[in-house]
Amino acid sequence: MSEALISARGLTKRYGDFTAVDAIDFDVAKGESFGLLGPNGAGKSTTMRIIAATSQRTSGTITILGRDPEEHGPQIRAHLGVVPQQDNLDTELTVTENLFIYGRYFGLGKRFIRTKIEELLEFAQLEEKRDVKVDALSGGMKRRLTIARALVSEPDILMLDEPTTGLDPQARHILWDRLFRLKELGVTLVITTHFMDEAEQLCDRLVVMDKGKIMAEGSPLELIKTYSTKEVLEVRFGSDRNKEIAPTLRAMCSRMEELPDRILMYVEDGEALLEEILNKKLHPTTSLVRRSSLEDVFLRLTGRTLIE
Amino acid sequence: MSNAVAIADARANRVGHQLYAGRARAILERSLIALRSSTWVPVATGFVEPVLYLLAFGYGMGELIGNVTLGDKTIDYTVFIAPGLLATSAMNGAIYDSTWNVFFKLNESKLYQGMLATPLGPLDVALGEIIWALFRGLSYAIAFLAITAPLGLVPGVSAVLAIPAAVFIAFGFASFGMAITSYFKTYQQMGMINIVLLPLFLFSGSLYPISVYPDWLEFLIQLMPSWHGIELVRDVWFGNFDSGTLLHIFYFLVMIICGLYFTTRRLRDLFMR
Ligand SMILES: Nc1ncnc2c1ncn2[C@@H]1O[C@H](COP(=O)(O)OP(=O)(O)OP(=O)(O)O)[C@@H](O)[C@H]1O
Ligand SMILES: [Mg+2]
Q: Cα–chain-centroid distance for residue A87?
């Protein structure tokens, strides 16, 4: 790994008695796209805010570009572009005015910002909406504008807190495409998500968080290799029969998870296992063979699914 | 300096650089852009209100009341209430901008959160918003003078000082208003501000000298910022400068400093802790 842009050791954040982030360690390298994957309340946003120098840690250490956010908040924020979980665009202003004034908050020159705005409108595909007030934009457009706004200061690190939550599949794919482009340009991305497909698509490396702790760390592929099998067979027998058949199935695979609506069987060859089940005349109502995903990693690590 | 990092780094060794990036004017710039597309109705009513009071009370009730004695001078009732009405409208304008508008930005639009994710500090935001609020005081004062001078209600040249005086007391009220608002979480609490303000202004001597009150009430009113504001503007309006004038100025200086201090602190606690 090359030089670490962000480095945290024993990073902890407590709200009263409640520990939101519990002694986590991680490093983010330059140019990397780093993910925090975890369910609601895992502590992802809290961690993001500490990195962004808008929340103070309770204990532990963290450096961003070698600096401590407690001493150099404004200097660190000058390096960052922040896309918060909830859009906080300036609803009294238009699209271009939002970009313009945000640049002014960084102290940038008017001429520089005006040129930059054209580039950003093109990037966010918002040229036609340039003079429209923010309220009149769709959810996906607002998100793209928030990302464009975060880029006005040409940040080294882009912090994206659940960039695509609440968007329809098409809007998500447009956003992913934009984020890929940024990655190619060498921008370091820090992304939180509770979508495993998003993490697989966007992250070079990620940590799986749950209840303030880091459960595992690695590339999506590494994590799947370490914590899951190559394939998964999903079968449903209907909620009453699931229970009755489960013991028989358990003997047929290395690991099994019983979810309320379905049974997941972890194996190297899903089709072969399905053959075997059908040969035993067990007849599931539905069956599906798929590759293991980060969802399975999460299930293995915590015994729970990512999206409840 | 060209890029965001260089601009922020240049201030890294200054005292208080975490609180203030020296860019309150960026916040003012934002308000100016927002103003272009906002409605002018509240601004306009602010202009008209003191004039309406002046007509109703001055020319209406003034006919019944006649003259008022102020110190050793006897003056026409309409002339007497003019500076009080000016002070009241400047204070009201400042409060409007620094309470309801701030409440919305704080709680609904999350605007300050967005600003504070940049290198800006809480003092930039506080100063920018408060200075914006006192522009209203300034414009009301100018308009009021422009209307009252031709009516012969302005006693002397020193009345021009009512303009800076109005801005000064607006500054005090705006700082104080924003500080209080930053601690409020619900609309009910915000509603309380209006309930407190109305009697405060009615009883603080804009329409009659507070010497008509029993001693204890007079004393109580003399503790109120609205009374100091009205008296300050009245002092400059009539050119009565004395130790009382200094006390009013001191009162508002304290108010401005406390307001800025608590607003900055609260913004930091809300968005940066
Ligand atoms: N200001 C706060 N005061 C008290 N508790 C807080 C505060 N902010 C967050 N928490 C708590 O800390 C925990 C972690 O919150 P955080 O927002 O970091 O989770 P998250 O992983 O981002 O979840 P989500 O996916 O829902 O956004 C939650 O239990 C939350 O209730
Ligand atoms: Mg979150």
A: 16
Q: Express each pLDDT in A10-42 by its tens digit.
A: 999 999 999 999 999 999 999 999 999 988 899
User: What are the tens digits of pLDDT across the range B172-209?
Assistant: 999 999 999 999 988 888 888 878 887 877 888 888 88
Write the DSSP assignment of A53-121 as a string of letters: TSS--SEEEEEETTB-HHHHHHHHHHHEEEE-SS----TTSBHHHHHHHHHHHTT--HHHHHHHHHHHH
Q: Which residue has the tokens 């250490």?
A: A61
* Section A95-115 average pLDDT: 95
Q: Do B9 and A78 touch (CB under 8 A)?
A: yes
Q: Is the ipTM value over 0.95, yes or no?
A: no
Cβ atoms of A81 and A159 within 8 Å: the answer is yes
* Per-residue pLDDT at A308: 53
Q: What is the DSSP letter of A18?
A: E
Q: How confident is the model at residue A1 (pLDDT cuts 50, 70, 90)?
A: very low
Rg (CA), chain A: 22
B101: part of which helix (H) or strand (E)? helix B77-103
Look up the pTM and report it: 0.87
Residue B57 is predicted with a pLDDT of: 82
Residues 6 or more apart whose CB falls under 8 angstroms from that of B87 comprise B165, B166, B169, B206, B229, B230, B232, B233, B234
Residue A57: both structure tokens together: 């840690």
Residues with CB under 6 A from ligand 1: A 15, 18, 20, 38, 40-46, 85, 194
Residue in the block written with tokens 């790994």: A1
- A50 CA to centre of ligand 1 in angstroms: 12
